[in-house]
Write a structure and sequence with these properties.
CATH superfamily of the largest domain: Neurotransmitter-gated ion-channel ligand-binding domain
CATH architecture of the largest domain: Distorted Sandwich
Low-confidence stretches: 1-17, 27-46
Number of helices: 6
Distance between the termini: 114 Å
Radius of gyration: 37 Å
CATH topology of the largest domain: Acetylcholine Binding Protein, Chain: A
Number of domains: 3
Structural class: alpha+beta
Order of helices and strands: HEEHEEEEEEEEEEHHHH
CATH class of the largest domain: Mainly Beta
Length: about 350
């Protein structure tokens, strides 16, 4: 039934398999035991934060150096930034003797040591970061440098548009179980910007950092927070000849009706200039920021509409008085309108400037 000599060959194969697998099983048991009882090799996600020195919190000094800032979107209230992020802190576990080591500075990979978990609060999605350098001094001071790019969300205030100034914020926090463990500080020597940093249509005034004294709760954990502020002001000169002056010229043309005696001509003039103003306003509206509050430009546009409304009433009253055989009274109202409209318009603009700019 079976080939001759089959049973002895099967027995020999089983014996050979036992001789092969028994040593391998023993090695596996030893390796599992070493992994179970040996201390872990700490990496960035495994090393616990260094303990406070002399019952003081661990201070992480931060700095952001702007390389470029671009694509400021008024409607989305976002901007893009390309910059360096520098961190420094002391970890005594990394201290070494430069004489014995033969080096004055040691370099590490990000996975080899503990690194504070710095997060950008108002960044859309996650920042794109490339670690440039991680170096450690003999006393354990760690210098961390990365280059990053991000799209940042920052609320804008358009109340004074187009004469507005804005503060663009970049918020940093550090994750910590207890605020006594890790706090953020500003390294002023590492805060700055390139001289050629610019934003189209804006003047960059300053770039500073502010430490927020009050921590806030996030996911039942307290955070330490920094606020990097980029102060900018809008280049408003182009808005004057392109938006403001055309609206004023159209309005002033309608006032020539106060020097005409023809009712039909006056009505045609006022209504046609009103239509021109509406058409121009629709064209300008596409470039104006959409806000739930009144802006300075919006207030001027609304005020101009009011003057058109009053001008139509004046022309109608003037014609009514003439029909009712009161030409003298109609003429006096017309003469008064020639002075009253410009004066009231000037006073209204002064009031608006005071309300929006606090002069």
């Amino acid at each position: 039934m079976f080939p001759t000599g089959w049973r002895p060959k099967l027995s020999e194969s089983i014996a050979a398999s036992r001789m092969l697998w028994q040593p391998m099983a023993a090695v596996a048991v030893v390796q599992i035991g070493l992994l179970w009882f040996s201390p872990p090799v700490w990496g960035q996600d495994m090393v616990s934060p260094p303990p406070p020195i002399a019952d003081e919190p661990l201070t992480v000094n931060t700095g952001i150096y702007l390389i470029e800032c671009y694509s400021l979107d008024d409607k989305a209230e976002t901007f893009k930034v390309n910059a360096f992020l520098s961190l420094s802190w002391k970890d005594r576990r990394l201290a070494f003797d430069p004489v014995r080591s033969g080096v004055r500075v040691k370099t590490y990979e990000p996975e080899a040591i503990w690194i504070p978990e710095i997060r950008f609060v108002n960044v859309e999605n996650a920042r794109d970061a490339d670690v440039v350098d991680i170096s450690v001094s003999p006393d354990g001071t760690v210098q961390y440098l990365e280059r990053f790019s991000a799209r940042v969300l920052s609320p804008l205030d358009f109340r004074r548009y187009p004469f507005d100034s804005q503060t663009l914020h970049i918020y940093l926090i550090v994750r910590s179980v207890d605020t006594r463990n890790i706090v953020l500080a500003v390294d002023l020597e590492k805060v700055g910007k390139n001289d050629d940093v610019f934003l189209t249509g804006w003047d960059i005034e300053s770039f500073t950092a502010v430490v927020k004294p009050a921590n806030f709760a996030l996911e039942d954990r307290l955070e330490s927070k920094l606020d990097y502020q980029l102060r900018i002001s809008r280049q408003y000169f182009s808005y004057i000849p392109n938006i403001i002056l055309p609206m004023l010229f159209i309005l002033f043309i309608s006032w020539t009706a106060f020097w005409s005696t023809s009712y039909e001509a006056n009505v045609t003039l006022v209504v046609s200039t009103l239509i021109a103003h509406i058409a121009f306003n629709i064209l300008v509206e596409t470039n104006l920021p959409k806000t739930p509050y009144m802006t300075y430009t919006g207030a001027i546009i609304f005020m101009i509409y009011l003057f058109y409304f009053v001008a139509v009433i004046e022309v109608t009253v003037q014609h009514y008085l003439k029909v009712e055989s009161q030409p003298a009274r109609a003429a006096s109202i017309t003469r008064a309108s020639r002075i009253a409209f410009p004066v009231v318009f000037l006073l209204a603009n002064i009031i608006l400037a005071f309300l929006f700019f606090g002069f």
